[in-house]
Amino acid sequence: MIDAATGKSIGQLDSERMASFSGVSYGIVGARELVASAQGVTRWSDRPGFATQAIPEMRRNLLVLRGVADYAPIGFIRVYEPATGRLLWDAEAEGDTRPYLDAQIAGDRAVVLREGVIESRELATGRVLWTARSDQAPLVSESRVIAFDQDKVAILNAADGKSIASWKKPSIGLGTRISIASSGTVYSSHAVPVSTLGGTRYDCTIYALDENSGDVRWQSSTDKKTDCSRPIVMDGYAVIVSPVKIYAIKTDAGP
Fold this sequence. Notes:
The protein has no helices and 23 strands. By secondary structure, the chain is mostly beta strands.
């Protein structure tokens, strides 16, 4: 790839960490430089200031770079104007002990968690629309944000951050993999470790929880001796993935 100003080679884009839009490729060169290029010629570049394993992505016609830096701070998000490379806004991890930032995107919002505070931001401007508490990374969709505060689960309206429901984490245990609400239901999977003579196995169960109360509407066990993923809710099914199988359970009727 050639620098348009100097005519010199500046290296190759990492083909596994690239995004493309309107004939322009965006990628990372040498772990530290974000480069936009077309037909092998650089359009613009930016150096975030730290090594990164981030993958550029296009969201709502904006270029988003988010991920974990190789050095502190841990986690960041940067949003660019694709045509010019102008940095629209950014956020980095903050804190004195173990700085951390989680950034998720749903529609025209970026939901950022740092120092135990969720910030719902306009993706285009970075303007903070509302905040809430959460002691771990929230789950995000265009309509809901699920926050966690100690032993509580809070279902929030993604538009304004107002509480829809709040309930105690279900007795199916900490570490429960909770998926985003859909049609008044929250889906969760829980892999319970079981000690056997041959070692430890995991018995996985999927639960459908009432969004307003956290009560279990139905549950279904997968084949034994397998771990499983957090449920993915799509097209009327709750889908979980194990190392050997994919399970799809109809959400309207359960097992």
